[in-house]
């Protein structure tokens, strides 16, 4: 390796100001993406998050694990979803809430940002439902004598029974963590950096039971489907899980996620923006 090669190696992460500039540039790229490509990319992200959620619930299917160990390791399992999104490339609604940085710097328009959010939200939903179908086809719920199917119902019920404003708060907290993980991903120079940076924020939000609207696009339909198949009959308040309850949760989670993402993006824009916005 010659001297030139040594000088070009930069193992350290981007500075906060550099990360903000990168986030603004990414927001411009996202706002200009064609609808068809954006939708398919969002479908991938919805499916990826569904795969991480499946991993989480398969792990929770072992009821002999202590609570703390279940939450911690289950949270790490769920990280698979965002690892795939950031490292393989896909459009995730919650991460795209950081596009507010480009809006604040007037590099994108409100219309361009909202168009991206709507297309990506719908694409995430389509990809999540595709993942639900694949998990059903593979009979994942039947694993461990049906214990995984019971967990799928239990997780879904736990998400539709809290007060709407509690779900809103959980949604805000969730996307603060998700967007901080994405921010770390923006600052990283290697795949290993991205993966390691994702682990703690994402496993924390899962362990703490916060609400992620895209994950819930998978968790809730899966739970409802498993319920209709006879799983989770002994779960408390199982009758509360229906189509109306799914809308109830996702409406609160979506609004909360937008607020949480905006808090992260606008806070870093306020601190590190180096150009006056006219």
UniProtKB/TrEMBL annotation:
GO MF, one annotated term: formate transmembrane transporter activity
Compartments, record wording: Membrane
Main location: membrane
Keyword list, A-Z: Membrane, Transmembrane, Transmembrane helix
Membrane topology of this protein: Multi-pass membrane protein
Record-stated family: Belongs to the FNT transporter (TC 1.A.16) family.
Protein name: Formate/nitrite transporter family protein
Species this protein is from: Senegalimassilia faecalis
Source species taxonomy: Bacteria, Bacillati, Actinomycetota, Coriobacteriia, Coriobacteriales
